[in-house]
Protein backbone atom coordinates (compact mmCIF):
# COMPACT_ATOMS: atom_id res chain seq x y z
CA UNK A 1 0.00 0.00 0.00
CA UNK A 2 1.65 3.18 -1.16
CA UNK A 3 0.73 6.78 -0.70
CA UNK A 4 -0.56 8.40 -3.85
CA UNK A 5 -0.33 12.06 -4.83
CA UNK A 6 -3.74 12.91 -6.31
CA UNK A 7 -3.74 12.45 -10.05
CA UNK A 8 -0.25 10.91 -10.19
CA UNK A 9 1.30 7.62 -9.14
CA UNK A 10 3.66 7.84 -6.19
CA UNK A 11 6.50 6.29 -8.18
CA UNK A 12 6.15 8.71 -11.09
CA UNK A 13 9.56 10.05 -12.22
CA UNK A 14 7.93 13.40 -12.99
CA UNK A 15 7.17 14.11 -9.33
CA UNK A 16 10.42 16.06 -8.62
CA UNK A 17 9.51 18.42 -11.44
CA UNK A 18 6.26 19.48 -9.76
CA UNK A 19 6.08 22.85 -8.13
CA UNK A 20 6.08 22.69 -4.32
CA UNK A 21 2.68 24.33 -4.19
CA UNK A 22 1.18 21.47 -6.23
CA UNK A 23 2.19 18.78 -3.71
CA UNK A 24 -0.42 17.58 -1.23
CA UNK A 25 0.52 16.07 2.09
CA UNK A 26 -2.87 14.35 2.42
CA UNK A 27 -2.40 10.70 1.29
CA UNK A 28 -6.05 10.41 0.28
CA UNK A 29 -6.73 8.73 -3.05
CA UNK A 30 -10.46 9.46 -3.16
CA UNK A 31 -10.09 12.32 -5.64
CA UNK A 32 -7.90 10.19 -7.88
CA UNK A 33 -10.36 7.34 -7.71
CA UNK A 34 -13.17 9.65 -8.82
CA UNK A 35 -11.19 10.70 -11.89
CA UNK A 36 -10.49 7.12 -12.91
CA UNK A 37 -8.53 3.98 -12.11
CA UNK A 38 -5.50 4.51 -9.87
CA UNK A 39 -2.47 3.08 -11.64
CA UNK A 40 -0.49 0.53 -9.67
CA UNK A 41 3.26 0.49 -9.49
CA UNK A 42 5.34 -2.68 -9.22
CA UNK A 43 5.46 -2.22 -5.48
CA UNK A 44 1.66 -1.85 -5.40
CA UNK A 45 1.22 -5.13 -7.24
CA UNK A 46 3.51 -6.90 -4.78
CA UNK A 47 1.71 -5.43 -1.76
CA UNK A 48 -1.72 -6.23 -3.18
CA UNK A 49 -0.70 -9.81 -3.88
CA UNK A 50 0.58 -10.24 -0.33
CA UNK A 51 -2.62 -8.76 1.09
CA UNK A 52 -4.67 -11.18 -1.02
CA UNK A 53 -2.68 -14.18 0.17
CA UNK A 54 -2.77 -13.04 3.82
CA UNK A 55 -6.53 -12.53 3.61
CA UNK A 56 -6.99 -16.07 2.23
CA UNK A 57 -4.77 -17.54 4.98
CA UNK A 58 -6.57 -15.73 7.80
CA UNK A 59 -9.95 -16.50 6.24
CA UNK A 60 -9.22 -20.24 6.00
CA UNK A 61 -7.94 -20.30 9.58
CA UNK A 62 -11.08 -18.58 10.85
CA UNK A 63 -13.19 -20.89 8.69
CA UNK A 64 -11.64 -23.99 10.24
CA UNK A 65 -12.26 -22.63 13.75
CA UNK A 66 -15.87 -21.69 12.99
CA UNK A 67 -16.73 -24.98 11.27
CA UNK A 68 -16.02 -27.04 14.39
CA UNK A 69 -19.77 -27.01 15.00
CA UNK A 70 -20.08 -29.04 11.76
CA UNK A 71 -22.75 -27.00 9.88
CA UNK A 72 -24.31 -28.34 6.67
CA UNK A 73 -21.98 -28.79 3.69
CA UNK A 74 -23.96 -26.27 1.66
CA UNK A 75 -23.32 -23.63 4.33
CA UNK A 76 -19.62 -24.44 4.28
CA UNK A 77 -19.42 -24.18 0.47
CA UNK A 78 -21.37 -20.90 0.56
CA UNK A 79 -19.01 -19.58 3.24
CA UNK A 80 -15.91 -20.47 1.19
CA UNK A 81 -17.38 -19.02 -2.02
CA UNK A 82 -18.39 -15.70 -0.47
CA UNK A 83 -15.08 -15.52 1.43
CA UNK A 84 -13.16 -16.01 -1.82
CA UNK A 85 -15.15 -13.21 -3.45
CA UNK A 86 -14.36 -10.99 -0.47
CA UNK A 87 -10.64 -11.68 -0.90
CA UNK A 88 -10.84 -11.01 -4.64
CA UNK A 89 -12.53 -7.68 -3.94
CA UNK A 90 -9.32 -6.55 -2.24
CA UNK A 91 -7.88 -5.79 -5.69
CA UNK A 92 -10.27 -2.81 -5.81
CA UNK A 93 -9.64 -1.66 -2.23
CA UNK A 94 -7.65 1.37 -3.44
CA UNK A 95 -10.60 2.72 -5.42
CA UNK A 96 -13.43 2.00 -2.93
CA UNK A 97 -11.85 1.27 0.47
CA UNK A 98 -14.74 2.56 2.60
CA UNK A 99 -17.50 1.00 0.50
CA UNK A 100 -15.79 -2.41 0.44
CA UNK A 101 -14.99 -2.21 4.16
CA UNK A 102 -18.65 -1.64 5.05
CA UNK A 103 -19.85 -4.36 2.66
CA UNK A 104 -17.35 -6.94 3.92
CA UNK A 105 -18.17 -6.03 7.53
CA UNK A 106 -21.82 -6.93 6.89
CA UNK A 107 -20.83 -10.10 5.05
CA UNK A 108 -18.41 -11.19 7.80
CA UNK A 109 -21.27 -11.40 10.32
CA UNK A 110 -22.20 -14.79 8.89
CA UNK A 111 -19.21 -15.65 6.66
CA UNK A 112 -16.17 -16.85 8.63
CA UNK A 113 -13.76 -16.96 5.68
CA UNK A 114 -14.25 -13.20 5.05
CA UNK A 115 -12.37 -12.30 8.26
CA UNK A 116 -9.03 -11.91 6.46
CA UNK A 117 -10.49 -9.51 3.89
CA UNK A 118 -12.16 -7.55 6.70
CA UNK A 119 -8.84 -7.11 8.55
CA UNK A 120 -7.06 -5.89 5.39
CA UNK A 121 -9.86 -3.42 4.62
CA UNK A 122 -9.85 -1.98 8.15
CA UNK A 123 -6.13 -1.37 7.81
CA UNK A 124 -6.56 0.13 4.32
CA UNK A 125 -9.21 2.60 5.46
CA UNK A 126 -7.03 3.67 8.40
CA UNK A 127 -4.13 4.33 6.03
CA UNK A 128 -5.98 6.13 3.25
CA UNK A 129 -8.79 7.96 5.01
CA UNK A 130 -9.10 10.49 7.82
CA UNK A 131 -9.34 9.27 11.38
CA UNK A 132 -13.05 10.04 11.65
CA UNK A 133 -13.83 7.71 8.74
CA UNK A 134 -11.43 5.07 10.06
CA UNK A 135 -13.09 5.19 13.48
CA UNK A 136 -16.56 4.65 12.01
CA UNK A 137 -15.37 1.72 9.90
CA UNK A 138 -13.61 0.20 12.91
CA UNK A 139 -16.79 0.48 14.96
CA UNK A 140 -18.82 -1.28 12.26
CA UNK A 141 -16.30 -4.14 12.09
CA UNK A 142 -16.21 -4.44 15.87
CA UNK A 143 -20.00 -4.77 15.94
CA UNK A 144 -19.83 -7.32 13.11
CA UNK A 145 -17.30 -9.34 15.12
CA UNK A 146 -19.53 -9.34 18.18
CA UNK A 147 -22.47 -10.62 16.09
CA UNK A 148 -20.24 -13.25 14.46
CA UNK A 149 -19.39 -14.78 17.85
CA UNK A 150 -23.09 -14.91 18.62
CA UNK A 151 -23.60 -17.05 15.52
CA UNK A 152 -20.37 -19.06 15.84
CA UNK A 153 -19.51 -19.15 19.56
CA UNK A 154 -16.03 -20.28 20.51
CA UNK A 155 -16.34 -23.41 22.65
CA UNK A 156 -13.05 -22.80 24.41
CA UNK A 157 -13.52 -19.08 25.13
CA UNK A 158 -16.25 -17.19 26.94
CA UNK A 159 -18.21 -14.70 24.86
CA UNK A 160 -17.09 -11.68 26.88
CA UNK A 161 -13.44 -12.57 26.30
CA UNK A 162 -14.08 -13.15 22.61
CA UNK A 163 -15.78 -9.75 22.44
CA UNK A 164 -12.86 -8.05 24.21
CA UNK A 165 -10.34 -9.71 21.89
CA UNK A 166 -12.37 -8.63 18.86
CA UNK A 167 -12.57 -5.02 19.97
CA UNK A 168 -8.89 -5.03 20.93
CA UNK A 169 -7.86 -6.54 17.60
CA UNK A 170 -9.87 -4.02 15.55
CA UNK A 171 -8.44 -1.14 17.63
CA UNK A 172 -4.86 -2.35 17.18
CA UNK A 173 -5.25 -2.73 13.41
CA UNK A 174 -6.86 0.72 13.14
CA UNK A 175 -4.17 2.39 15.22
CA UNK A 176 -1.47 0.65 13.19
CA UNK A 177 -2.97 1.99 9.98
CA UNK A 178 -3.20 5.49 11.46
CA UNK A 179 0.47 5.29 12.46
CA UNK A 180 1.41 4.32 8.89
CA UNK A 181 -0.68 7.20 7.59
CA UNK A 182 0.99 9.69 9.96
CA UNK A 183 4.42 8.50 8.89
CA UNK A 184 3.53 8.91 5.24
CA UNK A 185 2.21 12.39 5.90
CA UNK A 186 5.49 13.25 7.61
CA UNK A 187 7.52 11.88 4.69
CA UNK A 188 5.44 13.82 2.18
CA UNK A 189 5.74 16.97 4.28
CA UNK A 190 9.53 16.61 4.44
CA UNK A 191 9.64 15.94 0.72
CA UNK A 192 7.57 19.03 0.05
CA UNK A 193 9.90 21.11 2.20
CA UNK A 194 12.88 19.72 0.31
CA UNK A 195 11.27 20.67 -3.01
CA UNK A 196 10.49 24.14 -1.67
CA UNK A 197 14.08 24.55 -0.49
CA UNK A 198 15.40 23.50 -3.90
CA UNK A 199 12.98 25.83 -5.65
CA UNK A 200 13.92 28.75 -3.40
CA UNK A 201 17.61 28.04 -3.93
CA UNK A 202 17.09 28.00 -7.69
CA UNK A 203 15.19 31.29 -7.47
CA UNK A 204 18.00 32.83 -5.42
CA UNK A 205 20.57 31.72 -7.99
CA UNK A 206 18.45 33.07 -10.83
CA UNK A 207 17.98 36.37 -9.02
CA UNK A 208 21.71 36.63 -8.39
CA UNK A 209 22.35 36.05 -12.09
CA UNK A 210 19.74 38.64 -13.00
CA UNK A 211 21.27 41.21 -10.66
CA UNK A 212 24.73 40.47 -12.05
CA UNK A 213 23.48 40.96 -15.60
CA UNK A 214 21.88 44.25 -14.61
CA UNK A 215 25.12 45.38 -12.98
CA UNK A 216 27.15 44.51 -16.06
CA UNK A 217 24.58 46.17 -18.32
CA UNK A 218 24.86 49.36 -16.27
CA UNK A 219 28.66 49.22 -16.50
CA UNK A 220 28.53 48.79 -20.28
CA UNK A 221 26.04 51.64 -20.62
CA UNK A 222 28.02 54.01 -18.40
CA UNK A 223 31.40 53.27 -19.96
CA UNK A 224 30.60 52.66 -23.61
CA UNK A 225 28.01 55.41 -23.95
CA UNK A 226 30.63 57.93 -22.79
CA UNK A 227 33.31 56.65 -25.16
CA UNK A 228 31.04 56.27 -28.17
CA UNK A 229 29.58 59.74 -27.69
CA UNK A 230 33.14 61.13 -27.82
CA UNK A 231 33.78 59.18 -31.01
CA UNK A 232 30.58 60.54 -32.54
CA UNK A 233 31.49 64.14 -31.70
CA UNK A 234 34.98 63.94 -33.23
CA UNK A 235 33.80 62.00 -36.26
CA UNK A 236 31.04 64.54 -36.77
CA UNK A 237 33.58 67.35 -36.68
CA UNK A 238 35.60 65.69 -39.45
CA UNK A 239 32.46 65.16 -41.51
CA UNK A 240 31.38 68.77 -41.04
CA UNK A 241 34.85 70.18 -41.84
CA UNK A 242 36.37 67.95 -44.53
CA UNK A 243 38.61 70.89 -45.59
CA UNK A 244 40.10 71.35 -42.13
CA UNK A 245 43.89 71.75 -41.88
CA UNK A 246 45.91 68.55 -41.96
CA UNK A 247 47.06 69.07 -38.38
CA UNK A 248 43.45 69.33 -37.09
CA UNK A 249 42.43 66.25 -39.04
CA UNK A 250 45.39 64.32 -37.62
CA UNK A 251 44.56 65.48 -34.10
CA UNK A 252 40.89 64.48 -34.43
CA UNK A 253 41.86 61.13 -35.92
CA UNK A 254 44.27 60.55 -33.04
CA UNK A 255 41.53 61.32 -30.52
CA UNK A 256 39.15 58.96 -32.34
CA UNK A 257 41.76 56.20 -32.34
CA UNK A 258 42.54 56.71 -28.65
CA UNK A 259 38.86 56.80 -27.72
CA UNK A 260 38.15 53.65 -29.73
CA UNK A 261 41.10 51.89 -28.12
CA UNK A 262 39.94 52.93 -24.65
CA UNK A 263 36.37 51.80 -25.43
CA UNK A 264 37.65 48.37 -26.47
CA UNK A 265 39.78 48.21 -23.34
CA UNK A 266 36.82 49.07 -21.13
CA UNK A 267 34.66 46.53 -22.93
CA UNK A 268 37.37 43.88 -22.47
CA UNK A 269 37.53 44.59 -18.74
CA UNK A 270 33.76 44.38 -18.34
CA UNK A 271 33.55 41.11 -20.27
CA UNK A 272 36.45 39.84 -18.16
CA UNK A 273 34.35 40.47 -15.07
CA UNK A 274 31.47 38.59 -16.71
CA UNK A 275 33.60 35.54 -17.54
CA UNK A 276 35.66 35.40 -14.38
CA UNK A 277 34.18 33.67 -11.32
CA UNK A 278 32.82 36.12 -8.80
CA UNK A 279 34.86 36.61 -5.65
CA UNK A 280 34.27 38.82 -2.69
CA UNK A 281 37.97 39.71 -2.58
CA UNK A 282 38.22 40.91 -6.18
CA UNK A 283 36.83 44.41 -6.80
CA UNK A 284 34.51 45.08 -9.71
CA UNK A 285 36.20 46.50 -12.77
CA UNK A 286 36.43 49.22 -13.89
CA UNK A 287 36.56 51.16 -10.62
CA UNK A 288 36.57 54.90 -11.37
CA UNK A 289 36.23 57.31 -8.44
CA UNK A 290 36.31 61.06 -7.97
CA UNK A 291 40.07 60.91 -8.49
CA UNK A 292 39.42 60.19 -12.18
CA UNK A 293 36.95 63.06 -12.50
CA UNK A 294 39.55 65.55 -13.93
CA UNK A 295 40.40 63.08 -16.71
CA UNK A 296 36.71 62.68 -17.53
CA UNK A 297 36.30 66.48 -17.72
CA UNK A 298 39.39 66.81 -19.95
CA UNK A 299 37.98 64.26 -22.40
CA UNK A 300 34.74 66.21 -22.58
CA UNK A 301 36.61 69.48 -23.13
CA UNK A 302 38.64 67.89 -25.93
CA UNK A 303 35.32 67.03 -27.57
CA UNK A 304 34.40 70.72 -27.60
CA UNK A 305 32.32 70.92 -24.45
CA UNK A 306 32.59 73.85 -22.06
CA UNK A 307 32.74 72.24 -18.64
CA UNK A 308 33.24 74.09 -15.38
CA UNK A 309 33.91 72.17 -12.18
CA UNK A 310 33.16 73.75 -8.80
CA UNK A 311 34.69 71.64 -6.04
CA UNK A 312 33.37 72.69 -2.63
CA UNK A 313 33.98 69.43 -0.80
CA UNK A 314 34.89 69.79 2.87
CA UNK A 315 36.75 67.39 5.10
CA UNK A 316 40.40 68.43 4.58
CA UNK A 317 41.01 66.09 1.70
CA UNK A 318 39.02 63.18 3.16
CA UNK A 319 37.80 60.75 0.53
CA UNK A 320 34.22 59.44 0.52
CA UNK A 321 33.66 55.68 0.58
CA UNK A 322 34.57 53.91 -2.65
CA UNK A 323 30.95 53.03 -3.43
CA UNK A 324 29.88 56.64 -3.00
CA UNK A 325 32.83 58.01 -4.97
CA UNK A 326 32.21 55.61 -7.80
CA UNK A 327 28.50 56.46 -7.89
CA UNK A 328 29.31 60.20 -7.95
CA UNK A 329 31.66 59.64 -10.89
CA UNK A 330 28.92 57.77 -12.77
CA UNK A 331 26.47 60.60 -12.15
CA UNK A 332 28.84 63.13 -13.72
CA UNK A 333 29.71 60.77 -16.57
CA UNK A 334 26.08 60.07 -17.46
CA UNK A 335 25.18 63.76 -17.25
CA UNK A 336 28.04 64.79 -19.57
CA UNK A 337 27.11 62.01 -21.99
CA UNK A 338 23.50 63.20 -22.08
CA UNK A 339 24.64 66.78 -22.75
CA UNK A 340 26.71 65.61 -25.73
CA UNK A 341 23.70 63.67 -27.02
CA UNK A 342 20.89 66.16 -26.49
CA UNK A 343 22.27 69.62 -25.74
CA UNK A 344 25.49 69.91 -27.68
CA UNK A 345 27.19 73.25 -27.56
CA UNK A 346 25.81 74.33 -24.18
CA UNK A 347 27.95 75.03 -21.16
CA UNK A 348 28.00 72.60 -18.28
CA UNK A 349 28.60 73.30 -14.59
CA UNK A 350 29.58 70.45 -12.28
CA UNK A 351 29.18 71.30 -8.60
CA UNK A 352 30.45 69.04 -5.82
CA UNK A 353 29.48 69.92 -2.24
CA UNK A 354 29.27 68.23 1.12
CA UNK A 355 31.59 66.41 3.44
CA UNK A 356 31.82 63.65 6.04
CA UNK A 357 28.63 63.37 8.07
CA UNK A 358 26.61 65.65 5.80
CA UNK A 359 26.56 63.60 2.61
CA UNK A 360 27.93 64.21 -0.87
CA UNK A 361 25.93 66.32 -3.30
CA UNK A 362 26.66 66.15 -7.04
CA UNK A 363 24.91 68.62 -9.31
CA UNK A 364 25.33 68.88 -13.08
CA UNK A 365 23.55 71.78 -14.77
CA UNK A 366 23.41 72.86 -18.39
CA UNK A 367 21.37 75.40 -20.33
CA UNK A 368 18.65 73.91 -22.50
CA UNK A 369 19.31 74.71 -26.20
CA UNK A 370 16.77 77.26 -27.40
CA UNK A 371 17.25 78.54 -30.94
CA UNK A 372 20.78 77.40 -31.75
CA UNK A 373 23.08 80.02 -33.21
CA UNK A 374 24.10 77.90 -36.16
CA UNK A 375 23.41 74.63 -37.87
CA UNK A 376 24.06 71.49 -35.90
CA UNK A 377 27.08 69.72 -37.43
CA UNK A 378 25.74 66.18 -37.09
CA UNK A 379 22.43 64.65 -36.16
CA UNK A 380 21.67 64.08 -32.50
CA UNK A 381 23.26 60.95 -31.09
CA UNK A 382 20.57 58.33 -30.47
CA UNK A 383 20.01 57.01 -26.99
CA UNK A 384 17.98 54.32 -25.29
CA UNK A 385 16.28 56.70 -22.85
CA UNK A 386 17.12 54.48 -19.89
CA UNK A 387 20.34 56.14 -18.74
CA UNK A 388 18.76 58.25 -16.03
CA UNK A 389 16.55 55.34 -14.96
CA UNK A 390 19.58 53.12 -14.47
CA UNK A 391 21.41 55.97 -12.78
CA UNK A 392 18.56 56.42 -10.30
CA UNK A 393 18.70 52.71 -9.46
CA UNK A 394 22.46 52.93 -8.93
CA UNK A 395 22.07 55.92 -6.61
CA UNK A 396 19.29 54.22 -4.64
CA UNK A 397 21.44 51.12 -4.19
CA UNK A 398 24.13 53.36 -2.72
CA UNK A 399 21.59 54.75 -0.24
CA UNK A 400 21.08 58.12 -1.92
CA UNK A 401 18.52 59.92 -4.04
CA UNK A 402 18.48 61.39 -7.55
CA UNK A 403 16.56 64.34 -8.98
CA UNK A 404 16.51 65.52 -12.57
CA UNK A 405 14.47 67.93 -14.60
CA UNK A 406 14.20 71.48 -15.93
CA UNK A 407 14.64 74.28 -13.41
CA UNK A 408 12.61 77.55 -13.46
CA UNK A 409 15.69 79.23 -14.99
CA UNK A 410 15.52 76.99 -18.04
CA UNK A 411 18.46 74.79 -17.10
CA UNK A 412 18.43 71.02 -17.07
CA UNK A 413 19.71 69.81 -13.74
CA UNK A 414 20.77 66.40 -12.49
CA UNK A 415 21.31 66.35 -8.75
CA UNK A 416 22.30 63.34 -6.65
CA UNK A 417 22.71 63.12 -2.92
CA UNK A 418 24.84 60.29 -1.56
CA UNK A 419 25.53 59.34 2.05
CA UNK A 420 29.01 60.20 3.36
CA UNK A 421 29.37 58.93 6.93
CA UNK A 422 31.48 60.91 9.34
CA UNK A 423 34.93 59.65 10.20
CA UNK A 424 34.86 58.21 13.72
CA UNK A 425 37.71 59.09 16.01
TrEMBL record:
Tell me a Gene Ontology molecular-function term this record carries: ATP binding
Q: Which GO terms describe its cellular component?
A: membrane
EC number(s) reported in the record: 2.7.13.3
Question: Which Pfam families does this UniProt record tie to the protein?
Answer: DUF7134, HisKA_3
What Gene3D superfamilies does the entry give? 1.20.5.1930, Histidine kinase-like ATPase, C-terminal domain (3.30.565.10)
Chain ranges of the DUF7134 domain: 44-184
Q: Which residues cross the membrane?
A: 45-63, 75-93, 100-125, 131-149, 161-179
Keyword DNA damage recorded: no
Swiss-Prot/TrEMBL keywords: ATP-binding, Kinase, Membrane, Nucleotide-binding, Phosphoprotein, Transferase, Transmembrane, Transmembrane helix, Two-component regulatory system
**What is the official name of this protein in its record?**
histidine kinase
What organism is the protein native to?
Jiangella anatolica
